[in-house]
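BUG: 3D viewer hangs when loading the predicted structure for this chain

Environment: internal workstation, default settings.
Expected: structure renders.
Actual: progress bar stalls at 90%.

Input used:
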Amino acid sequence: MDLLTESKTFLEDASESRIEKSVESNNRSFSFRVSCRCSGTIAKVFTSQEVGKVLGITLIKQLGWKADLRNPDLELFVHLNDIYSVVGIPVFRLPLATREYIRTAGLRSTVAWAMASLAEINAGAFVLDPMCGLGTILLEAAKEWPNVHYLGADINDSQLQGAHENIKAAGLMDKIELLKASVIALPLPSESVDVVISDIPFGKKFKITKDTKLLPNILREMERVLHVGGTVVLLVSQDLHKHMGGCISNCIENDTSLNATSDNKNGAAVVKDLNPKEKNRSPRSISSSIKGVETEHFNNKTTCFGSLAAVESYGVSLGKTDAFIYKYRKIFAAAMQ
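Structure tokens produced before the viewer hung:
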């Protein structure tokens, strides 16, 4: 081996040694935090804490990283459920659902925005949330589609007060009106609303269970105030999702698609509007605006509640629990039922 070769070998070895020492030094000073979420059946087998502990110990042993729960250099996000697993690195420090204009948080803002995006809100429309709570859905919709009249109704005074404060803080007092009213007795004329969009309560403070007859009454009142061709978008719990079949039936005569299938490949469905004024319209493609979630479309007979024909549904995660977004379209007038 000549001098040049020996020198090259020495330099390469020295360089590799410096790199290894540098990496080792960086690894020792690199801090991390693991945020885990488990939902569905898997949450009964593994808790979020157990999954986070296993991942944390692995990173410490394999990479020499240091755990820091308060101010880490890197946060790893892990979500496990019965359908998929997600491992990611948050791009922003604050969650995407954080909104400066919402003083009191209710429904997660990202879910509220997704619901509004499915509702086909057009300029000049009249949009109703008959169980508005703190007004999150109306706020998200009004921010995205401003040239619309929004009305929020709720039977609870404290919820209406919170909604009022949120609307005022967001500077949307001229866009959103509030009304104290029961969802099963709305003081509105029949077929006066273009879009109904609502989160059916299933939390700890406010809850509608499968054991009551309230859900059919709620759907019936929504159907009454909605005009033909209008849309209804609802967020329901897993429990209500399992029992939605008790409130609906198959409409043999209609062409709108809606038999459930969980094999969604492209997140789109083709639906025919059956508004008598628009029978000559070509089928409209509805693309999913919620990616990475379980989707149901209905392909043979139409699933209906009265004149409300189901269009599509999406499974979404609300953190510790999962829920479903249902979309309906009113396909004929109440007098035709």
